[in-house]
Amino acid sequence: MNASNDDGGRDQAGAIRSFRKSNISIVLTDPRRDDNPIVFANEAFLELTGYAKSSVLGRNCRFLQGDLDNEEERKRIRAALAAEEELTIELQNVRADGTRFLNRLMIAPIIHEGECIQFLGVQTPVDMDEGQIVADRQLKELQHRVKNHLSMIIGLIRQQTRTSGNPHEFSSLARRIESLQLLYEELTNGVDDGTVPMGSYLSRIASTIGHIDGRAGIRLQVEVESISMPVTKATSIGLILSELLTNAFQHAFEGRSSGLIDVKAMRLSNDAFRMTVSDDGVGLPGGTDWPSNESLGGRLLQAFVTSLEASLDIQRVGTGTIVILDVPASPDDQGIHVSP
């Protein structure tokens, strides 16, 4: 699959529109604060409920129930929160305009250092006419992966917050959650075999990061073979690409008005997976230790690489930098193929 922003950013804009219109919404709540308020809500949640972000943050999720008689469902939710347990439940909710919808709610605690620091909520509107919902296996698989990765990301953000004193500890979550959101869409829109089409997934991540961090004059080119991979590996690879592209857009072209970032991904002859991210920017200064443990992005990058038992090779070239990620094959890859 090929993608380029040479066409005036139309592909990037299309990817962003698709992401923002997704009906799979995500919120995070903080049980350490009074009344377990919402501390993060993605764009899909705002689209689904019709509320502005300013009307959502700082409130308990129960406001979505309005005056509806959901007492039995509320009891089950309260019990799951008190026990810090996962729960999947369907209940009626009310949008900002007063219209009702049937919500399939999945709740999961995010545990860090033995403490429940957040609850993850994934909302899926159920088609009340046809009763069609996303397959349970796919939903539970995503919830498990999102919860585990958010636990690691939030933990690292908390560590950085303690050392830097930055009170906006959730501001760094948005881009990472967007990458997980795109993974969710690939899971629910793709074939029902527990794998992720990497061509579509990585191209959409690249478009999303290009939209967020890109600027005029910096071209982004993506070429990914039609490979399907297990959810576990796809999650980490997508988050690695997000970190690499963000770093390239923010630092590789300092003092320059134009440049190229090139992303390639392929399966090697030994069934390993290789992804390269290269740029023709200013290059890394001599003696630079990157990725560094001193930055959140560097620590996340190293954590994701370690989770894959992969290698990360950084090469300084005449103009720019090349980063090569090699992910070894594993038994989980059996049956994964490259489409002709």
TrEMBL record:
Protein name: histidine kinase
Reaction(s) this enzyme catalyzes, per UniProt: ATP + protein L-histidine = ADP + protein N-phospho-L-histidine
Residue ranges annotated for the PAS domain, each copy included: 35-81
Residue stretches making up the Histidine kinase domain: 141-331
EC number: 2.7.13.3
CDD domains cross-referenced by the UniProt entry: PAS
Keyword Flavoprotein on entry: yes
Gene3D superfamilies: Histidine kinase-like ATPase, C-terminal domain (3.30.565.10), PAS domain (3.30.450.20)
Keyword field contains Transport: no
Coiled-coil stretches noted in the UniProt entry, renumbered to this chain: 70-97
UniProt keywords, alphabetically: ATP-binding, Chromophore, Coiled coil, Flavoprotein, FMN, Kinase, Nucleotide-binding, Phosphoprotein, Transferase
NCBIfam families registered for this protein in UniProt: sensory_box (TIGR00229)
InterPro entries, A to Z: HATPase_C_sf, HATPase_dom, His_kinase_dom, PAS, PAS-like_dom_sf, Sig_transdc_His_kin_sub2_dim/P, Sig_transdc_His_kinase_HWE
UniProt cross-references to PANTHER family, sorted A to Z: PROTEIN TWIN LOV 1
